[in-house]
Amino acid sequence: MMGDVAEILIHSDQIQQKVRELGGQITEDYQGKRPLLVGILRGATIVMADIMRQIDLPCEIDFMEVSSYGSGTTSSGVVRILKDLEEDISGRHVIIIEDIIDTGLTLSYITRALRTRRPASLEICALLTKPSRRKVDLDVRYLGFEIPDEFVIGYGLDYAGSYRNLPHICVLKPEVFQGTPT
Ligand code: XMP
Ligand code: MG
Fold first, then answer.
1. Is residue 8 part of a domain?
2. What are the residue boundaries of the Phosphoribosyltransferase domain, all occurrences included (predicted)?
3. What ipTM was estimated for this complex?
4. Within-domain flag for 79
5. Ligand 1, residues 40, 100, 124, 171: which to mutate, most atoms within 8 A of Cβ?
6. With a 6 A CB cut-off, is 79 part of the ligand 1 pocket?
């Protein structure tokens, strides 16, 4: 698999260090509370599994899966909920766990949808963001890394369903994109 990789952008050691920092911040900020971590499937599965073990508090997890209508590689802002939460979030301290923010449209939709359910608080934790691509303002309380406008894979992020199990955040070789149906 590493043979398809052009460059390691963020090494797993750096990711683990950052996840420890973010988990530590969440632990401080939510003292005396019992946060509900909401992972966005499927990309956030790896960061969810790692970050929850760095949070030294009683907490629960839940998952949502969404799909954005549109061209496939860029978000349209129109989002469909494929799998909704199992938990009632009213009165809960909710932290959304996301792998990457690109335009911000997906998270903007999700936060609007979840606010209508009256959580006690709602914050966003995202491992990666591409600031140059942002189309909407988003208040991201816990942020891992800013990256340039490049398509990245690994640590939960996929290309055509593959590469999620790479331990590092990587850029693919251009020839991998050629002729591969998605
Ligand atoms: P928006 O634009 O709504 O998009 O913020 C967020 C979603 O777009 C996907 N995305 C990526 N997936 N490598 C990926 O594997 C990338 O570089 C990338 N950029 C955006 C991702 O599903 C994210 O949830
Ligand atoms: Mg995603």
1. no
2. 12-159
3. 0.94
4. yes
5. 100
6. no
